[in-house]
Write a structure and sequence with these properties.
- The protein is α+β, with helices and mostly antiparallel strands.
- The protein has helices at 13-28, 33-54, 86-89, 103-110; strands at 6-9, 57-65, 70-78, 113-118, 123-130.
- It has a five-stranded antiparallel sheet with strand order 1-2-3-5-4, covered by helices on one side.
- Strand 2 (57-65) and strand 3 (70-78) form a beta hairpin.
- Helix 1 (13-28) packs antiparallel against helix 2 and helix 2 (33-54) packs antiparallel against helix 4.
- Bound molecules: adenosine-5'-triphosphate (ATP) and magnesium ion.
- Magnesium ion binds next to helix 2.
């Protein structure tokens, strides 16, 4: 099995580290500058949410190398309070922290595939971007 690069999110500065690692991997995979920026922004939003709502968590990266396409999978996992109503948090402008509520809908727009899974405890968000 392939080793998956990951970053533990514990302090605010870890958001920067996750963003940088994700951008480096995206560059190696051959993403355009614009897509590298999109991926880095998505990673920032996911890790900021972990830091704000779950306090700690982890973000890991998986290179997808298929015969017909390459991509990057970003997975953000935490053991925080979880998200009860996923359709609600996916609406532009919904925030429980006085934020813009633009983070998760933004990540969905920036990436090609997006999935939220949440139980009573914890949240797992997976997003994929394909190289074009
Ligand atoms: N990892 C998480 N664990 C628990 N709740 C979360 C998590 N991520 C997001 N949420 C909930 O989803 C809501 C919407 O998140 P989103 O990132 O879209 O907006 P925001 O963080 O409130 O504001 P913004 O990201 O625009 O500054 C949050 O206000 C929070 O209630
Ligand atoms: Mg947010």
């Amino acid at each position: 099995m392939e080793l998956k690069p990951y970053v533990h999110i514990r302090k605010e500065i870890d958001i920067v580290g996750a963003r940088q690692l994700g951008r480096e991997l995206a560059k190696e995979l051959g993403f355009s500058k614009v897509d590298q920026a999109r991926i880095a922004t998505a990673i920032s939003e996911l890790t900021r949410n972990i830091y704000l709502y779950a306090k700690t968590g982890k973000i890991y990266f998986e290179e997808i190398d298929q015969i017909d396409r390459k991509g990057l999978r970003v997975v953000a996992i935490d053991d925080g309070p979880g998200i009860k109503d996923i359709s609600q948090v996916m609406q532009d402008g919904f925030s429980t922290s006085g934020g813009l509520g633009a983070g998760l809908p933004g990540v969905k727009r920036l990436m090609d595939q997006f999935e939220v899974n949440s139980m009573n405890e914890g949240t797992k968000i997976e997003a994929i971007k394909w190289v074009r």
